[in-house]
Amino acid sequence: MDPKPKNSIDSLLQESRRFAPSEAFAGASVARPELYSEAKADRLGFWADRARELVDWHTPFTEVLDWSNAPVARWFADGELNVAYNCLDRHVLAGNGDRVAFFWEGEPGDTRTVTYAELTREVKRAANALAALGIGRGDRVAIYLPVIPEAVVAMLAVARLGAIHSVVFGGFSAESLRGRIEDAEAKLVITADGGYRKGKVFPLKPVVDAALEQGGASVEHVLVVRRGENAVGFTEGRDLWWHDTVDAASDEHVAEGFEAENPLFILYTSGTTGKPKGIVHTSGGYLTQVAFTHRNVFDLKPERDVYWCTADVGWVTGHSYVVYGPLANGATQVLYEGTPDTPHPGRWWELIEKYGVTIFYTAPTAIRSFMKIGRQVPDGFDLSSIRLLGSVGEPINPEAWVWYRDVIGAGTAPIVDTWWQTETGGIMISALPGLTTLKPGSAQVPIPGISIDILGEDGTRVDPPHGGLLVVSEPWPSMLRGIWGDPERFRETYWSRFSTPERWRYFAGDGAHVDEDGDIWLLGRVDDVMNVSGHRLSTTEIESTLVSHPIVAEAAVVGASDEQTGQAVVAFVILRAEHADAQTPEEASVALRAHVAQAIGAIARPRQVFVVAELPKTRSGKIMRRLLQDVAEGRDLGDTTTLADTSVMHIITSDVRG
Ligand code: 6R9
Questions:
Q1: Other beta carbons within 10 Å of 498
Q2: Cα separations (Å) of 569 from 297, 509, 530?
Q3: Which PANTHER family does the record associate with it (predicted)?
Q4: In the sheet that 466-472 helps form, which strands lie side by side, from edge to edge?
Q5: 508: DSSP letter
Q6: Which residues contact 90 (CB under 8 A, 6 or more apart)?
Q7: What is the rounded distance in angstroms from the CA atom of residue 420 to the CA atom of residue 316?
Q8: pLDDT band at 108 (very low <50, low <70, confident <90, very high)
Q9: How confident is the model at residue 30 (pLDDT cuts 50, 70, 90)?
């Protein structure tokens, strides 16, 4: 493992701009300053109060945290709730059924406005339809959909029945989808014929068919939403149209209470080995933390705000901050199917103007791509409704931060830079608007009730101002409860490195620096996980994919810094002798880039594939990716003395640079 953070700490720490809360926020924010002192005085009492304040319980809980089986936590374990009821029925019962839940906009410009009353009815219908297909508590349902209202309906219908959803991002390949369906042994797949992306229909149902052709034996039915109108084949007895099945079902359905630790979803994420990890989240603690953070970090005033999080529901940000947090809080949202630049580069700004978006949450990679196009595009729209901006997915560089605030936030909107992970379920580190003086580039402070430490390699806490590895030192309500089917990997990956007999400590895999004020600056992954456009990719997974191609003998993959995507996938491959002469390096590169996109998904397609004669290895045979990263980023080589053969790097450099 390379403990050296990949961002330039010097450039970050020279950042000295400070932005105190504006008049509009100071004293008027949802977040109360006492939250910090209350949480500090009694952390468990604090979370119990939040759980009672923000969640409706079918059966109230009496115990807060059971940590006796650590590192598997049980929060509010004797309480019972229905997550979908909390996101739907209770708002309707409180008289807010006419409030808009979603202003949905398709990429071609078609629109749907869905109120809480309509969403509740639709979820009840879908729950009845799913129950009729044999779905009940604990069953797994794979969801492979575009960002259309049915994606939210499907997730909530599964939750309503106490079943477990596994949403697979629509950009993943048949092979990736099959792996996830099989790992979770899904009984049902919910998909669409296709969805819109960059002005074209991309097929989804055919990908599901391909995934199920060679596996997925557990799947009994495939439920298909009509969206793309593209031609699809149907397997008799297995495949059903959503509009036949769901529309015909009754819209009466009483939500049953399930225990707080009933699993809510599995979401797969890349780890340091090839196989994606199925991160398991449960109900009561998860809903408490996502509702609390959504309300306080985004200063949500549900009666007034129009909130837009641009994440796809296939990522954790879509789960926690499009579906569960905002709906639990009764928020009104924009939901957009397509890409930011279709049919024109101002599409997002047009939507902000059209719907009067007040709170906007997106990723640094998007902000950087808008910066590159120039401010004349957003300047062509009225963005004056915006009052708060959020960032997530990777560290935001101070230049992008300041551009975001100036150009999108009129120079006044606070920016909350939110650090968290698929595993943490909800936001862990962020400023609170109205309370925190902002520092561009720093995620700043743990939210109330969360304990974060920065440790040195030896596990001792580093004193400010120093860098180290980020750990969470106390259990938190929305923490992962495990890796689906692999308790050993769960302990090994997250808990083995820094736990002591006295204390369990969760290792996040990120490097961080803490400054004199105690503010935290995230410095990127310290393991073999890349962050491309805010999405996690495993170097090992891409390497295995490359090696699975018949022309490849060996492969090494690194994440090289990239102006737009943060990091980009760069691969170095050695061809098998019999193929090395049969094609040019350019032909091999084209074929291998396509192979990776086909096997994993377009997001994993390498920016470059270099055909080389050798790879740099230590005497023990470990590939020194750090040196390849130097090559990929065009730097002078670092220390090569631990290489088994020190001449190797000359050969590689001349292969790459010609
Ligand atoms: C929510 C999400 C998690 C990894 C995480 C870290 C990086 C996310 C960040 C950030 C710096 C932020 N990350 N937010 N780094 N500042 N505000 O992105 O989950 O896809 O699981 O990725 O993303 O490296 O470890 P996930």
A1: 19
A2: 32, 19, 8
A3: ACETYL-COENZYME A SYNTHETASE, ACETYL-COENZYME A SYNTHETASE 1
A4: 452-455, 466-472, 506-514, 520-525
A5: E
A6: 56
A7: 10
A8: very high
A9: very high
270 in ligand 1 pocket by Cβ < 6 Å?
A: no
- Burial of residue 41 (CB within 10 Å: 0-12, 13-18, 19+) is exposed
Atom of ligand 1 nearest to the CA of 422: 21
SS3 content of the chain, % helix, strand, coil (to 5): 30, 25, 45
SS (H, E, C) 371-426: HHHCCHHHHCCCCCCCCEEEECCCCCCHHHHHHHHHHHCCCCCCEEECECCCCCCC
pLDDT tens by residue, 77-92:
999 999 999 999 999 9
User: Which residue's CA is the closest to the ligand 1 atom numbered 16?
Assistant: 395
| Ligand 1 near 395 CB (within 6 A) | yes
User: For position 548, what pLDDT does the model report?
Assistant: 87
Res. 9 pLDDT band, cuts 50 70 90: low
Contact assessment for residue 643 and residue 649, using Cβ atoms and an 8 Å cutoff: yes
393 lines ligand 1 (CB under 6 A): yes
Binding-site residue ranges: 197-200, 317, 393-395, 417-422, 510, 525, 533, 536, 547, 549, 552
Residue 635, pLDDT above cutoff 90: no
The encoded tokens of residue 422 equal 């698929």
The answer to whether residue 499 scores a pLDDT higher than 80 is yes
Which among 551, 566, 585 has a CA at the least distance from the CA of 656?
Answer: 585
Task: Tell me, using a 6 A CB cutoff, whether residue 419 lines ligand 1.
Answer: yes
Atom in ligand 1 nearest the alpha carbon of residue 508: 25
Paired residues of 14 in beta bridges:
none
Report whether pLDDT(266) > 60: yes
> For ligand 1, is residue 294 a contact (CB within 6 Å)?
no
| pTM of the complete model | 0.91
Could you give the CA distance from residue 635 to residue 629 in angstroms, rounded to a whole number? 8
- Would you say the CB of residue 311 lies under 6 angstroms from ligand 1? no
| Alpha carbon distance 370, 449 (integer Å) | 35
Partners of 111 in the β-ladder: 105
Mean pLDDT, residues 171-181 taken together: 95
- Decide if the complex's ipTM is over 0.85: yes
Q: Check if 421 has its Cβ closer than 6 Å to any atom of ligand 1.
A: yes
7 lines ligand 1 (CB under 6 A): no
Mutation to probe ligand 1, out of 319, 531, 538 (largest number of atoms < 8 A from CB) = 531
Backbone angles phi, psi at 645, to 5 degrees: -130, 105
392 within ligand 1 shell (Cβ under 6 A) = yes
pLDDT on residue 11:
61
Q: Which residue minimizes the CA distance to atom 11 of ligand 1?
A: 395
Tell me the backbone φ, ψ of residue 51, rounded to 5 degrees. -65, -35
Closest residue to atom 23 of ligand 1, CA basis: 393
Q: Is the pLDDT of residue 13 over 70?
A: no
Among protein residues, the one with the nearest Cα to ligand 1's atom 17 is: 419
Flag whether pLDDT at 18 surpasses 90.
Answer: yes
The confidence score (pLDDT) of residue 509 equals 94
Asked whether residue 5 carries a pLDDT value surpassing 60, the answer given is: no
Q: What DSSP element (H or E) covers 370?
A: helix 364-373
| Residue 651 or 129, more confident | 129
Please tell me the distance between residue 385's alpha carbon and the centre of ligand 1 in angstroms. 28
pLDDT of residue 622: 72
